Amino acid sequence: METKERLMLTKEQYGTFFKKNYHTACLVALRYIPDIDRAEDMVQDVFVSLWEKRKELQVKINLKKYLLSAVKNQAINLTQRDKANTIPLSKLMVDLEEDEPEEFAKEELSVKLAEAINELPPACHNIFSLAYQENFTYQQIADELNLSKNTVKTQMGIAYRQLREKLRQSIVVLVQMLQWQ
């Protein structure tokens, strides 16, 4: 059953909604706009537009899905206007209903992963970043940070364990969604 609801959120509620969904919205925008600053500006514009039009908007789906759809549509519009962009329009014209649940779930998992990595203890975070962002081997990390290779292995073990604990539920949901396809 489809219901329509008005966006009658307080400033505090909308602020919470913004904080909770900004990163996911940016990831959606980055699928179409390769420039991170431009994507972030566009996402902020969508949030402002939603706030300004809150009294006349009627949302047929939940507010988060509405936001992500608006971000996707705005990104496609910007891409179409930008002749210098190299992403073919045929790739952009994917129906939101087809890729929505799986793609948004993957993007949310990416956001949660980034947040979990940022919450690692400083030593773990530094070592984990070198391993996965810089593709350093354990020996290269040990040499770079003047540590023993065993210390690097131990810190990586701590990082893996903490990431597994923080992402366990999200990964289960993603795997289940992929199996349903």
TrEMBL record:
Gene3D superfamilies (UniProt xref): 1.10.1740.10, Winged helix-like DNA-binding domain superfamily/Winged helix DNA-binding domain
The keyword Oxidoreductase is annotated on this UniProt entry: no
Highest taxon above the source species: Bacteria
Keyword set includes Transcription regulation: yes
InterPro entries hit by this protein: RNA_pol_sigma-70-like, RNA_pol_sigma-70_dom, RNA_pol_sigma70_bacteroid, RNA_pol_sigma70_r2, RNA_pol_sigma70_r4_t2, RNA_pol_sigma_r2, RNA_pol_sigma_r3/r4-like, WH-like_DNA-bd_sf
Pfam families for this protein: Sigma70_r2 (PF04542), Sigma70_r4_2 (PF08281)
Domain RNA polymerase sigma factor 70 region 4 type: 112-157
Ranges where the RNA polymerase sigma-70 region domain occurs: 18-80
Molecular function terms, GO-annotated: DNA binding; sigma factor activity
Family membership noted in the UniProt record: Belongs to the sigma-70 factor family. ECF subfamily.
Protein name: RNA polymerase sigma-70 factor
Protein source organism: Maribellus luteus
